[in-house]
Structure formats: C-alpha cells, structure tokens
Amino acid sequence: GSRIARCMKEYFIYKKNYKGTISSTLLAKSLYQKLWDDSPYLLKQLPGIGMVTAKALHSMGVKSFEALAEADPRRIEIVTGR
C-alpha cells in the first residue's frame, strides 16, 4: 500500500499535479503510520502510547499534541493509570 502511494506521488510530481502529490503524500504517511491523518487518536503516534492510552486521553479531552503539553500531569496519570 505505501509503496503504491509513493509511486503515485512520484507520478503526480512528474505530471506537475500538485493536488495529487499532496493527496498521495498524505496517503503514504497514513499507511506508514497505520493511522489516518484525521483520526481522533493522533496521540497514538507517540512512543509508548497505544490505543487504550490514546482512548483514555481522548476521553479526558486531550485530542492534540498541544493539549497534551498543556494538560495537568497528575490528571494524565489518573486517567491513564501510569
């Protein structure tokens, strides 16, 4: 899947189709990370955070990297159990 998306990106670059280039780049990135770019569990990309922890953080309102940086560490410990 990701090899095909990278091939599509190269093709669109060759054809100077920039919308196609952007779309295929985002597709390749999503396939590589096994996570869509608009997923509510973006924090799953961080090392040590699996789906259970990502869902727990999402339930407490932490849905972005910025929100995680601003969140109270004690509350994160309570919600995630770590």
Offer a few descriptive terms:
single chain; 82 residues; mainly alpha; 2 domains; 0% strand; elongated; ATP-binding; hydrolase; helicase; Meiotic_Crossover_Helicase
H/E topology pattern = HHHHH
* Fraction of helical residues: 55-70%
Structural class of the secondary structure composition?
A: mainly alpha
What is the domain tally?
2
Distance N terminus to C terminus? 35 Å
What is the mean pLDDT?
88
Binned strand content: under 5%
What is the global morphology?
Answer: elongated
Tell me the quaternary state.
single chain
Q: Unreliable runs, pLDDT <50, ≥5 residues?
A: none
Q: Quickly count the helices.
A: 5
Radius of gyration: 17 Å
Number of extended strands: 0
Main sheet specs = none
Write the layout of secondary structure elements.
Blueprint: H1 2-14, H2 18-33, H3 51-59, H4 65-70, H5 73-80
Q: How is this structure best summarized?
A:
Pfam families: HHH_5 (PF14520). It is built from 5 helices and no strands. It is an all-alpha fold.
Report on this structure:
The chain has 2 domains: 35 residues; 44 residues, no CATH class. 63% of the residues lie in helices and 0% in strands.
